[in-house]
Amino acid sequence: MNRVLTAARLQFVHPLVVLGIPWLVVSISFAINWAVWALADLRDQPGAGFTGGVMALYITVMVVFVQSVTQLLPFAMGLSLSRRTFFTTTALVALVSAFGYGLALAGLAAIGDATDGWGVGLSFWAPIGMRADGLAMQALVSGAPMLALIAAGVGMGVVQKRWGPAGVWGLIIGSITVVGGLVVLVTWLRAWNEIGAWFTDRSLATLAIGLPTAVALVLAALAWGGLRRVVP
């Protein structure tokens, strides 16, 4: 338990970077979006309440967890912490972080609702399509995708430490190839309508909670498989 707590403290050795940078980045994104909505008077425009600016928070948190592996893992191993301890702690921090961010986003979305979109009709913290009834449900809807991106960040960090730049480029090229191949295959099969119908028939809980959680579990398993052979 002491080793787990030690590894957990390592994750927050620079709290202003780990916690401050993501909120700074998304606050700037929010300020820009708010200014655009206020100056352009977009309140009554169809579909104008949507903005993807909150993704700045998700992407920044993912980068933070990439760095948690690439920068902290060698130091943790230098302190004689095992790979298993480091991974277990990282997983626990990821779960707590995802829930905390989800709860914060749900609270900010509730404030937005109470203030008529921050006074300008802006739906920023829970964009259209990601709105759920109730604070707890909204926290899960906002937090589960965060967990998936955190797992992706940990996985990318493991690839960087295990295989170096060649592994990172291989991951990028491989991902583009797989995604591009799937797009070509679906287009060839003329199955876009069926795929769209499938997503339309799924509930918000399935799409925003179930699928991201499943993705996070798969990525975590792959990350652990690579981490087991990482050297300092």
UniProtKB/TrEMBL annotation:
Lineage top rank: taxon: Bacteria
The keyword Transmembrane appears for this protein: yes
Transmembrane is among the record's keywords: yes
Keywords, ordered alphabetically: Membrane, Transmembrane, Transmembrane helix
Chain ranges passing through the membrane: 12-36, 56-79, 91-115, 135-159, 166-192, 204-227
Name of the protein described by the UniProt record: ABC-2 type transport system permease protein
Organism of provenance: Blastococcus jejuensis
